[in-house]
Amino acid sequence: MASNPVFGRIEKQMEQGQYAGFGNQPQQGQAQPGYGQQQGYPQQGFPQQGYGQPMPGQQTPSPQDLEQMYGAGTAGPAQTGRMTVDDVMMKSLGLFAILVIVAAGAWVFTDASPGLAMPLLLGGIVGTLGLGLFIAFKKTISVPLIVTYAVLEGVLVGTISNVYNDMFGSGGMSGIVGQAILATLCVFVAMFTGWKTGFIKVTAKSRRIFGMMLMGYFLFAIVNFLFAMFISDEMFGFGGNGPLGIAISIFAVGLASYSLAIDFDSIDRGVQAGLPEKTSWLMAHGLIVTVVWLYLEILRLLARLQSD
Question: What pLDDT does residue 276 have?
Fold first, then answer.
């Protein structure tokens, strides 16, 4: 199981062989079908041609043709329509740029109209949750929906960042928002380095364990949000800013951090499997979702520590 439904769906499709023609090579020791079998002819009674002998009606290539084919080289992933790491990186940067621009606009807007901060915050939470699940389980990849999600996520991030900035004091990069941004970048680099060097392992067993932990925390987060909104006066919900609340936030930051390693591993597996190029949009979307989740959990942890 992956860190979020986006990667989980892709990996399930890879295991079921739904990406036929993209990286599905014959296994070692498995006989490849002959020419007649590939074309649908019965093998029995079909004349087999010797190596290097042209088929009937096939013209022998000239030396110039052979030289031209040799000079063309082997078709790469871009020519064959397969996903590359560069595809995922560029689309991730594009979605992240949209998110940052919209977040800055939401920050300025809520500064000018503080009374609209709560409606925007609730709208961002409900919108990203609903659209995110729809994108994850949609059978086809919709780029406009993924871009729309980045916009909604920008509204959520910009609004909640401004709320926390006002509540816990501003101070530029030395304030709580700046600290959360810096911490998120540091965790991202550390997790990528740890995964790339093999220090942080991602195995089938760790994926299953992490998936169950993530599902439990997701259900807890929903209950905690409803508890904080409608029952308790404590903005953080269960645990408040005490030791229990801080422990919950540390656990959540740990989950989001390891989720990054699983995302990196899923992207790498997708590239090796030769997934279609359009899948890079879904991979980039899933990665941005994890980064934002990590940022929000770090922001909450810093707020709890500062309140305490």
Answer: 92
